[in-house]
Write a structure and sequence with these properties.
Layout: H1 3-21, E1 35-40, E2 48-49, E3 51-56, E4 65-69, E5 79-80, E6 89-90, E7 99-100, E8 109-111, E9 114-118, E10 128-132, E11 138-139, E12 144-154, E13 160-170, E14 186-190, E15 207-208, E16 212-218, E17 224-230, E18 234-237, E19 242-245, E20 255-256, E21 263-272, E22 279-282, E23 293-294, E24 302-308, E25 315-327, E26 342-348
Parallel strand pairs: 7-10
Antiparallel strand pairs: 1-3, 2-11, 3-10, 4-9, 4-12, 5-11, 6-10, 8-9, 12-13, 14-16, 15-25, 16-25, 17-24, 17-26, 18-19, 20-23, 21-25, 22-24
């Protein structure tokens, strides 16, 4: 083999090695950035996207512009808007540890798949970033992996200062749809099931029980309603065969008891309006404003309180205290077995 043939083989081999070693894209004639990446806002195929571009200069020089070439592999072309004015930029919400790209602004030129932006003088060792708009700029290609492009800075000659090839991936869908179920909840509790008058009923006084609390927790979007009904609309003694009747009528206003006059009412007091979207209100019938007032007890369910509001009007533990009040006359028959049963129910408004 002649020296000429040997030189030819060496030249061909060197060219082949260079092709195999160099990434697909622009040849790496200039120094590469210390780090550089394109972060797309979307990786979904054929979807309009914006993105974030970051690069850390390697070479000390005076940059005047930065350009990025988007992937151009056959069959996977990105669509690059050719109007430079559409390629607007921002420098907010950048990746941690980065600095806003000095002198960056709206693109000055678009040629094919290459978009050029103005740049100020960058400092070696600093990671600079900027965002480009996702409106009327870039549309992803069809699906593909290791789709390569290039990014570079130039001086005013213009000559390339730093240059790096990059790769990205386009997939069928880049989003994970998360689903969950919050089951409906409703919790009703009573602080006890007995409520005894603290002392004997006396015609000279109006007596009240200590009361029992009704607590409601629910995630019903419309809040909740509480109702009460009475077994006999009064306090009844079997031994004396006598009933101290409830006072008044169910008319949307509380009744006021008078010492020495028989009467029996139920008072509802707001104890806790808990955190949540709903606001508790006592029903006017049972909203006794004094220790001698309360609502008429009925054989039918009557609302004593409700928690309402604009959805979601949930409740995280509202508390209502129900108190019974009674007055007797001098001639009210004696008996140690005066009793009554009040049934308390509630419902969430789902």
């Amino acid at each position: 083999m002649t020296k000429r043939n040997i030189k030819l083989v060496v030249a061909i081999s060197a060219a082949l090695v260079a092709q195999l070693v160099a990434p697909v894209g622009v040849a790496m004639a200039a120094p590469q950035f210390d780090q550089a990446y394109l972060r797309l806002d979307r990786h979904k195929a054929l979807t309009t996207t914006g993105g974030t571009i970051c690069a850390e200069p390697t070479t000390t020089a005076t940059e005047v512009d930065f350009s990025i070439t988007f992937p151009t592999q056959a069959g996977t072309d990105f669509t690059v808007n050719s109007t430079a004015a559409n390629w607007t930029v921002t420098t907010t919400d950048l990746p941690a540890g980065s600095t806003a790209w000095i002198g960056i602004g709206t693109a000055t030129n678009v040629t094919g798949k290459t978009v050029t932006f103005p740049s100020g003088d960058l400092t070696v060792g600093t990671l600079y970033c900027f965002n480009f708009s996702g409106t009327n700029t870039l549309t992803n290609s069809s699906t593909g992996n290791s789709l390569t492009g290039a990014m570079r800075t130039r001086n005013n000659t213009p000559a390339i200062i730093d240059e790096t090839n990059y790769a990205t991936s386009i997939i069928a869908d880049d989003q994970i749809q998360v689903s969950a179920i919050v089951p409906p909840t409703f919790i009703l509790t009573l602080s006890g099931n007995t409520d005894t008058f603290p002392s004997n009923l006396d015609p000279a006084a109006i007596l009240s029980t200590a009361g029992r609390t009704v607590s409601v927790t629910t995630n019903a979007k419309g809040g909740w309603i509480g109702w009460a009904k009475d077994s006999q609309q009064g306090l009844f003694s079997a031994t004396s065969n006598y009933k101290i009747n409830t006072a008044g009528t169910v008319n949307g206003a509380p009744s006021t008891l008078t010492a020495g006059t028989e009467g029996y009412v139920l008072d509802a007091n707001l104890t806790t309006d808990a955190a949540g979207g709903c606001t508790v209100a006592i029903d006017a019938e049972y909203d006794g404003a004094t220790t001698s007032a309360g609502g008429t007890l009925s054989a039918n369910f009557q609302p004593f309180a409700a928690c309402t509001g604009a959805p979601p009007a949930t409740s995280n533990g509202d508390v209502i205290t129900l108190i019974e009040r009674a007055a007797i006359a001098g001639g009210t028959p004696a008996g140690s077995d005066y009793t009554d049963v009040i049934t308390v129910v509630a419902a969430g408004n789902f």
